[in-house]
Amino acid sequence: MKIGINGQRLLIQDPAGPERYTYNLINALAKLDRDNEYKIYFNGEPGKEYFSQLIYSNNSFKPVIVKSRVSWTQSGLAKELKRNPVDVFFTPVHTMPIYRNKKLKVVGMIHGLEYKFVSKSVSFIKKLMLGRPEEYLARKSHALIVPTIATKKEIIKRGWVGENDPKIYIVHEGVGQNFYKRDEAEVSAVRKKYNLGDKRYLLFVSTIQPRKNIPLMIQGYAEALKKNPDLSDTHLLIVGKKGWGAEESYNAPKKFGVEKNVLFPGFLPDEDLASLFSGAEAFISISLEEGFGLPLLEAMACETPALVSDIPAFKEVGGEFPLYVKPNDYEEIGNSIALIFHGGYKPERIYGAKLRAQEFTWDRTAQKTLEIIQQVAENA
């Protein structure tokens, strides 16, 4: 069987959740499957060392460079799939070619429907297009993969897929093997690298954008410092690249009087994140909506307490182990932050979260995804 994978976003700088998902899935598939042939479609030339690591030196995986001056998906990729057809095309980036060979089977992946939080900041034309690629993929794909029950319910609620339609599958994402509790030397080294000294800190990890509710998270942190003077020497470390509409988040520390306590180091590599998780008092995310919640899972694997909003995706990933708060209640957030700094997060929760995180592996994600691809191919 010939399988094509949309790798359009693999080469972008500072990869976020969907890009990390695509990389880890391909890497796990390459370890698992040496029977099928794979084509990975790039919009640029991948480095030899990068590609070798990506495909785990599996010669069944080949790079295909697709160039296009207009729409990469609707022009360049569409032409490539017609000229050199595959049996099944898998796309993890919410889009697929409209014009394609009728025999082509498509498996789509929708990570979440957070696009609705973008609508306030875009032009009228772009606003009209928000959600259209996701809807088209949901309706026209032969199988649709989502990471959580929460995302499945949202898609069904919109009427894109019927409630009893068997084409939609829930396949959880995984946590990389490099995310585990690091020793004191590694934590000390990363503290020195980012000038944290010996101060205690909370850690947020994600792209900085309005959906992440960062201003209110900062307000909650400021409330904790106001009520607990002993926490005045702590930090809130906000790690992630700048997204759209980030200005309010960057201005929030000054607005709430904690500009000396809140740090924005930008995007950081995975090798540093595991150590930062390990040294943190807690991982914190008061996000308004998530499709999955990969940083939460990584924090759990690193034995880091977690303080997160009580949204469906976080509850599905974290189970009973994180400390949940209402994402619109800065006082509750502040009280919970103080509780964690004062030792109120019990060790049993940390251990339970670690065991739960071990259930989420990229090998399992790849195995289930391959089974879906094979099922789609067999139903040709």
Automatic annotation (TrEMBL):
* Signal peptide boundaries: none
Which residues are in the Glycosyltransferase subfamily 4-like N-terminal domain? 17-175
Q: CDD domains from the entry? A: GT4_MtfB-like
Q: Tell me, what is one Gene Ontology molecular-function annotation carried by this entry? A: glycosyltransferase activity
Keyword tags: Transferase
Keyword presence, Iron-sulfur: no
Keyword Nucleus belongs to the record? no
Please report the stretch or stretches of sequence annotated as the Glycosyl transferase family domain.
191-350
Identification of the protein by name: Glycosyl transferase group 1
